[in-house]
Amino acid sequence: MKIRSTLAALALAGIALDSVAAAQAAQDQPADVVVNMRGVEIADVADQISRITGRTLILDPAVKGVVTVTSATPLTPAGVWELFLSVLRANGFAAVRSGRAWRIVPAANAVRDGGVPSRGASGQELVTRMVRLANVPAADVARVVRPLVATFGSVEPLASPNAVVITDYADNVRRVEAIVRQLDGGSGATFATITLRNGNAADVAQSLQTVLGDPSGAGARVAADVRSNTVIVRGTPAAVAEARRIAVSLDHPGGATPITRMFRLNFADAESVTEVLRGVLGQGESADNPVARSLSENQNPFARLSNQSQGLSGMQGSSGIQGLGSQGATAPTQPVMQSPRVETPNGFSTPELTVQPAPELNAVVVRGTPQAIASIEPLITDLDVRRPQVLIEAAIAEITGDDAEALAVQLGTSGAVLSQVEGAGTSFSQPDSGFASLGQILTVLGVPAGKLLGNGFTGNVAIGDDFSILVQALGVSTKANLLSTPQITTLDNVVGEIVVGQNVPFVTGSVLTDSTNVRPYTTIERKDVGITLRILPRVNAGDTIRLQVNQEASSIAAASTAAADLITNRRAINTTVLADNGETIVLGGLISDDYQDVRQQVPILGDIPIVGELFKSRRETHQKRTLFIFLRPRILRDGADASAAAKEKYARLRADEIDNNRRSSLLLAPPTPRLSVEIEGVY
Q1: Fewer CB within 10 A of the end CB, N or C, for the chain?
Q2: Can you tell me the mean pLDDT for 312-338?
Q3: Is 630:584 a contact under the CB 8 Å cutoff?
Q4: Model confidence at 41, in pLDDT bands (50, 70, 90)?
């Protein structure tokens, strides 16, 4: 195979060299041949031409006839050859090169035998050439140029590649090729994409297709991409340009058909998202965030929550849960079942959009142009994210110690001698214990000494009727270890509140309605007494939490004869702090150490050493109080974190239940200190 390929290549190279040499020799030959043949057999003419041009001619048996060949001017051998080819063409014959020889065959057979695919062939030679097309289909080109080819010639279209094969005389092939190039030139099909700003792509595409006509003719092919609101046009450059002009004239504000879409929210609140959209589109002067709106309405974000709580508690016939240990409350009225009146949330409108929240479905309904809706869709998607929750654990630790001691010695002489009662006794009164003191018991029994016995030790010694000594002594020690750990879980940027306590009535006024009635009409106001925790967390970058805290702990103080009504102890803190996730910080506290020394004595006599103790009364009190408030926030980002926190608190509840059943006597086994070494143990 390699030897045959080499020989074929050498043969073609030899033919090419012969053609070049023959062309060079033809230019050098003199024009001295005059042809004048009339009524001569074509075979004889071929014999003479072979001698003049030096070419080997082979006549097909079908080549017969009489021809007349004359030339008015002398010709060169090359000119004689061109003249011979013209004669053959005029008589329905053709010369086909076959190696170094030329075969003279009928023109109908020349198509089958092939031609010279060379651009340097003379105009009278039969050639075959393939013309590639870039824009116009080959079948359309073949249909156009087929009438331009000789009857024995051929034009065949090829689908792959897109080309036509032409067989005809060389001069005609060159003419047909030029026409084909013009057909496949700048007038081919092209395409363009037209992006609409206001119009609807489907409607504009339909209008363009109607105006431009059938795409199979001279019109254009039009399609719409609804997703990008783009019109795609394919056709001739003129048709594409015309379609672009029409689309631009149709793309004006208000021309698009409005559509309606409903965005269902998975995590965000429909009304909050509507407020954000209202602020972004410039349709409201109010804040575009519920938390920011609450801050703008009142500098204290907890005020609105407190007002809502009071409003709920004051509703007639509303049901609720009373505070722990509440007593003396009036009987609630019979609740009336009524459908709650829900105000329709307000939406807003712009020239291109109408936005309305649907709280029942937690969705936002939007109606407007496709482009306007597409512009806010990414914003709604970004707003609809799961917000983290924050578990806030607070600890209010208060340790109080009150110590008081009193000693009084009183002397009586003459008429001031206390001689009716002699002896000593101790009497202790505990208001909350339920036990009666010795003085109270003796008073009930009618013993005169009962009224003399006070709290502590009381002793009286009488010496005859002239002198008596009354000694009174009392020591009081009060220790308190108070620990409260309110805890609450709330959403990021949402105010949370927990109240644990009593709803205590306080007298606010008293009016006599009738002079004959000694019982006045008394008005009271109920207030929560206990522990209240209001907090607003904001989760920032890096798991840092900004906390706006309002912590209050109140309690009812011991009864006092000097007070007209109840006395409450109140400890409150209102601050804003930053804390890391899981970090315990101290919000504030109080350390007080009070010492008081009260002395009553007889002037001069009370200052005498030792003996002066008989003429004085002393009372010393020492109060020490240590109070600190701690807080630890924990971020709950997903369901796993929330479940772990719930399991942890439930385990703590079970442990306290078991420990409560193991309680022993407080007097025999006083409790140990409750505060752990590590601060995390306080929770």
Answers
A1: N
A2: 38
A3: yes
A4: confident
209-236 per-position pLDDT tens digit: 888 876 655 568 899 988 788 999 988 7
Query: Alpha-carbon distance 380 to 262, whole Å?
Result: 11
Calculate the alpha carbon distances from 602 to 111, 462, 490, 634 in Å.
156, 21, 65, 64
Distances (CA, A) of 218 to 157, 192, 213, 235, 365: 22, 17, 8, 8, 45
Q: Tell whether the torsion through CA atoms of 21, 23, 26 and 27 is positive or negative.
A: negative
Give the span between the Cα atoms of 224 and 208, in whole angstroms: 11
Q: For residues 555 and 531, what is the distance between their CA atoms, to the nearest angstrom?
A: 9
Which three-class secondary structure string do you get for 205-254? HHHHHHHHCCCCCCCCEEEEECCCCEEEEEECHHHHHHHHHHHHHHCCCC
- Cβ pair 265, 384 in contact under 8 A: yes
Please, are residues 606 and 588 in contact by the beta-carbon 8 Å criterion? no
Cα separations (Å) of 561 from 451, 566, 623?
19, 10, 21
CB distance 97 to 118 below 8 Å? no
pLDDT band at 390 (very low <50, low <70, confident <90, very high): very high
Name the average pLDDT for the chain. 76
Q: How far is CA 6 from CA 2, 16, 116, in A?
A: 6, 15, 21
For residue 456, give the 3-state DSSP assignment. Answer: strand
From first CA to last CA, the distance across the chain in angstroms is 96
Length reported for the chain: 683
pLDDT at 76: 84
Please calculate the CA angle 361-367-369 and round it to the nearest 5 degrees. Answer: 145
**Residue 487: how many CA atoms within 13 Å on its side-chain side?**
13
Model confidence at 484: pLDDT above 70: yes
What pLDDT is attached to residue 564? 60
Q: What percent of the chain has pLDDT over 70?
A: 76
Phi, psi dihedral angles at 375 (to 5 degrees): -75, -30
Return the pLDDT at 507. Answer: 80
The partner residues of 157 in beta bridges, in order of sequence, read 164
Listed in sequence order, the residues at least 6 apart from 311 whose beta carbon sits closer than 8 Å to its beta carbon are none
Distance of alpha carbon 574 from alpha carbon 627, whole angstroms: 15
Q: Is residue 308 scored above 70 in pLDDT?
A: no
Q: Give Cβ neighbours of residue 629 (< 8 Å, ≥ 6 apart).
A: 394, 395, 396, 397, 551, 573, 586, 587, 588, 589
Sign, CA torsion 277/279/281/285: positive
With tokens 């109240």, the residue in question is 499
331-346 pLDDT tens trace: 344 444 444 455 556 8
Average of per-residue pLDDT across 409-420:
76
Q: What is the pLDDT of residue 120?
A: 53
Q: How far apart are CA 140 and CA 163, in angstroms?
A: 11
Q: Contact at 8 Å (CB) between 174 and 145?
A: no
